[in-house]
Amino acid sequence: MTLFVIVLILLALVFDFLNGFHDSANSIATIVSTRVLKPQWAVLWAAFFNFIAFLFFNVHVGTTIGTGIVDILVIDPMVICSALLAAVFWNVLTWYYGIPSSSSHALIGGVIGSVIAKSGIHFVNFQGLIKILISIVASPVLGIVLGALLMLCTFRLFFKSTHHKANKIFRKLQLLSSALVSLGHGGNDAQKTMGIIAALLFSEKLIGPVFYIPVWVVLLCNFVMALGTLFGGWRIIRTMGMKITKLSPAYGFCAETAAAFSLFLATHLGIPVSTTHTITGAIVGVGSLQNISTVRWGIARRIVWAWIITIPATVLLASCFWVVTAFLVRLFGLAC
Question: Is residue 282 a contact partner of residue 147, using CB atoms and an 8 Å limit?
Fold first, then answer.
């Protein structure tokens, strides 16, 4: 490997770490807000299941990222560099303001923007992009619907139970549901970095003539994402777990289970969805059944706007980063 490729792999791992850091709220916010686990234990719980996710899922999502968004033949180290810089910048910016935007869509926008800057829009795989854009709408809607349905079933099954008894049962069940969300997060989100690193290695002819994701890349990406989750994004935890709506253990269990099901389905289909979108939709779904007025719709609208602008913003950022990178390469004669 050249020094530049090694640096880019490290940059990809920085993105992976920030993804876990940024998205830690997705799997622990509800379990923290319902006081089932203290934040420090919830983070350890989520990080463990983030790491072992590779044991349960194939790498279809990573393959989609590596080959399904743009023509892989135009991907080179400069494209990867620009995409990663845009995604990392966006993650840090949204973390700073406590906005649970999508790390996945930041990376997707980064790849698209850098390829457009390099070779033009006709190298974008619009069929794959449309599938991802549909998932932007479908994942929170599915979360809302499943969360509401699970909540209705819970009302039906525990109608005669006392509040204390129901809480005691669902506090235990939330340990399982939060573990499932963490598995889904590790299984879907870590694969985005896997796909980027594999695309980089493929472009440099370091993994042979056929695209695949090496085992060491899988293990490394899951480990780094778990490490990011371990450090946690406390600003976003407050938004996801406490500012959208107030949750009881039963509501938290239903939201997490709905989100986990959606993530498992998307990962099985190879669709790189946003964990943030999915869990937020599920929280809104169960919260609106509790009492429509308990959902803080102003916070929800702020989150939705972040979803809408993430891909356009990172497309623009990555295009700018590619222009700057290309200028520096010509200026200093760097070999890419």
Answer: yes
Q: Which amino acid is at 176?
A: L
Tens digits of residue pLDDT in 150-199: 888 888 888 777 777 887 888 888 889 889 988 988 888 889 899 999 99
On whether the CB atoms of residues 79 and 318 are closer than 8 A, the answer is no
DSSP letters spanning 85-147:
HHHHHHHHHHHHTT----HHHHHHHHHHHHHHHHH-GGGB-HHHHHHHHHHHHHHHHHHHHHH
Query: What is the rounded end-to-end Cα distance, in angstroms, of the chain?
Result: 11
Predicted confidence (pLDDT) per residue in 87-134, tens digit = 989 988 887 776 767 778 888 999 999 999 999 999 998 888 888 888
The model's pTM: 0.84
Angle at 276 between CA 272 and CA 280, to 5 degrees: 130
Q: Tell me the C-alpha distance between 14 and 224, whole Å.
A: 8
| Torsion on CA atoms 93, 272, 60, 199, rounded to nearest 10 | -40
CA distance 162 to 266: 36
Exposure string of 297-336, with b = 16+ CB inside 10 Å and e = fewer, is: eebbebbeebbeebbebbbbbbbbbbeebeeebeeeeeeb
Euclidean distance between CA atoms 195 and 160, whole angstroms = 49
Given a cut of 50, the residues of the chain with pLDDT beneath it are 241-242, 244, 336
Question: Looking up tokens 């649970």, which residue turns up?
Answer: 100
Residue 124 φ/ψ, nearest 5 degrees: -80, 135
User: Under 8 Å CB-to-CB from 223, ≥6 apart: which residues?
Assistant: 51
CB atoms within 10 A of CB 168: 12
> Exposure pattern of 148-160 as b/e (b: 16+ CB <10 Å)?
bebbeebeeeeee
CA angle 308, 99, 106 (to 5 degrees): 50
Which letter does DSSP use for residue 70 in this model?
Answer: B
